[in-house]
Write a structure and sequence with these properties.
mainly alpha; 9 helices; elongated
């Protein structure tokens, strides 16, 4: 039997799989939003329990595959990442969140329905959010120092760049 993570990823293997599983994917987005509202309401809490207990606590009911998708989405924002390939119903899980990482990860995923949840303003003040987003956007800009053709060649030959390494 394949793991929950393998079953989750199978839903996205190809376009036909996505179309067949569209109802499950839509349900995922609804449940994900509710789970984040629960988490953001208690930012100091460290969530611990078995996979099954946390699945119920976050409102996923019996939807193990969808809950695994949620865990995959939040995993990179946890202080201690989970090995989702080994997660089973009785696996003990600890969800301790780095909220700044999570906020940026939501922006990277373009998940506006998540990073626009009002509770974010209580966790990270709006000014700090803007500062974080500015730094994140700046980190995505590619900067290249261009050498002018009449400048000295950086190889140290003493020649102009156009007559040395820039000749090719």
């Amino acid at each position: 039997m394949s793991s929950y993570l393998e079953q989750w990823n199978a839903m996205f293997q190809d376009q036909q799989s996505q179309q067949l599983n569209m109802a499950e994917i839509d349900l995922y987005y609804q449940l994900e939003t509710k789970a984040y509202e629960i988490i953001l309401a208690e930012p100091q809490k460290v969530w611990q329990g078995t996979f099954t207990d946390l699945r119920e606590e976050f409102g996923f009911g019996k939807k193990s595959i969808i809950f695994t998708g949620f865990l995959e989405g939040i995993n990179s924002s946890l202080k201690n990442e989970l090995d989702l390939n080994k997660v089973e119903d009785d696996t003990e899980i600890k969800i301790e969140i780095d909220f700044e990482k999570l906020f940026i990860a939501m922006h990277e995923a373009k998940a506006d329905w998540l990073y626009n949840i009002k509770a974010w303003d209580d966790i990270i003040e709006p000014g700090k959010q803007q500062e974080m987003l500015y730094e994140w956007r700046q980190s995505k800009i590619v900067r290249v120092d261009k050498i002018g053709r009449n400048e000295p060649c950086p190889c140290g030959s003493g020649k102009k760049y156009k007559n040395c390494c820039g000749k090719n």
